[in-house]
Each structure stands twice: as structure tokens, then as C-alpha cells.
Amino acid sequence: MRTMEQSKGMEQAVYPGSFDPITNGHVDIILRGAQLFPRILVAVLENPKKATLFTTDERVAFIRDIFKDRPQIEVEAFHGLLADFVRSRRARIIIRGLRAVSDFEYEMQMAQMNQQLNPDLETLFMMPSARYTFLSSSLVKEVFALGGSVRGLVPETIERRLREKFKAQSESSST
Ligand code: PNS
User: Fold this and answer.
1) Rounded distance from Cα 144 to ligand 1 centre (Å)
2) Which of 68, 75, 79, 90 could form an SS bridge with 46, CB 3.0 to 4.6 Å?
3) What is the per-residue pLDDT across 60-97, written as a single tens digit (0 to 9) for each?
4) CATH number of 4-134: 3.10.129.10, 3.40.50.620, 3.40.50.720, 1.10.10.10?
5) CA of 47 relative to ligand 1 center, distance in Å
6) Which helix (H) or strand (E) is 100 found in, with range?
């Protein structure tokens, strides 16, 4: 028998993103979400049109590894419309992190479009810890590529993966 939470689609929340790569700001939101919902499904966007540093499989594997001791947190790749993916998983809640006012307009547009596509959906905005408000995957990649430290901004495994990826890239460009 389905519980009331299950039939209302409230037993899990979907946390979508590109996660190229996951940062400690994302980790913070996932852990906060996990205090509110029995299950968090991290949905990693697979977009063949957008060039990413890490492949979809890599991005999924990294997040699975980070949360391997927390069965409450699941990770899946998705493509196409987020609204369709959320419906296909019988969920209703989308979690998005809001770092600053500058995020608001884009997030509001997305939330409203998703609501238009699937009126059952609710987008829940959560604020990360203040120490991560400036943090983004693109800044992490830029700083790392230019030799800056990203310690404390990404999980240690991601720091290692970044090092491996940039080393592999510089080796292949020098041959
Ligand atoms: O981490 P990001 O890159 O800000 O995440 C953006 C994401 C993945 C949530 C968004 O691009 C998305 O939902 N893409 C799927 C395609 C889609 O549904 N587009 C219409 C949403 S308004």
C-alpha cells in the first residue's frame, strides 16, 4: 500500500543540475534537502548540445561516490524536459539552490515554465550556507584551470578528478 506521502509525490524531491562538477554548495543543498524529504533524487542533465568538462557518466559516478554511505540520496542522469523526468519518477518537488538575487530571474522563469509544463510540480528554493553564495561550477573550473586553489570548495574526490582531467588534457594537447 502506498503511504500518503507516496501518493502525493512528497516522499522524494528531485534536485536537478549540470553538476559539472558538483561543488560543496551543491552538497550543502543536497544535505539540507535530505533533512526535509525521505529521498533526494539528484538528476544530472545529459545535454549533448552543451560541452561539459566531465561526461555524464563521470558526473553521475562522482556524486554517487560522494553519497555512497547515504542510501537516501540517489543519482540518475536525465535528458529532455525536466518536467517529464520528474513526472516519470512520480515526484512533484524540484529543489533548486538560490545563491543571490542574480539567480532569481532565471530560476523564476524555469520554475514557471516547469509549472506550465506540469502543473503538479512545485519548485522549492533553498539557500546554501552563506560561505557558498559565491560558488559555482564554472568558477571552480576557471580558478582550477588557472592554477588557483579550490580546496574546501569542492569535495576532495572532485579536486582529485579535476587534477586528473586537466593533466590528461594538457598531455593530449602537447602530443
Ligand atoms: O545546474 P544548472 O545548469 O543551472 O541546471 C539547469 C537545469 C538542468 C535544471 C535546466 O537546464 C533543465 O532543467 N534542463 C532540462 C531541459 C528543460 O527542462 N528545460 C526547460 C526548463 S525551463
Assistant:
1) 25
2) 79
3) 999 999 999 999 999 999 999 999 999 999 999 999 99
4) 3.40.50.620
5) 10
6) none
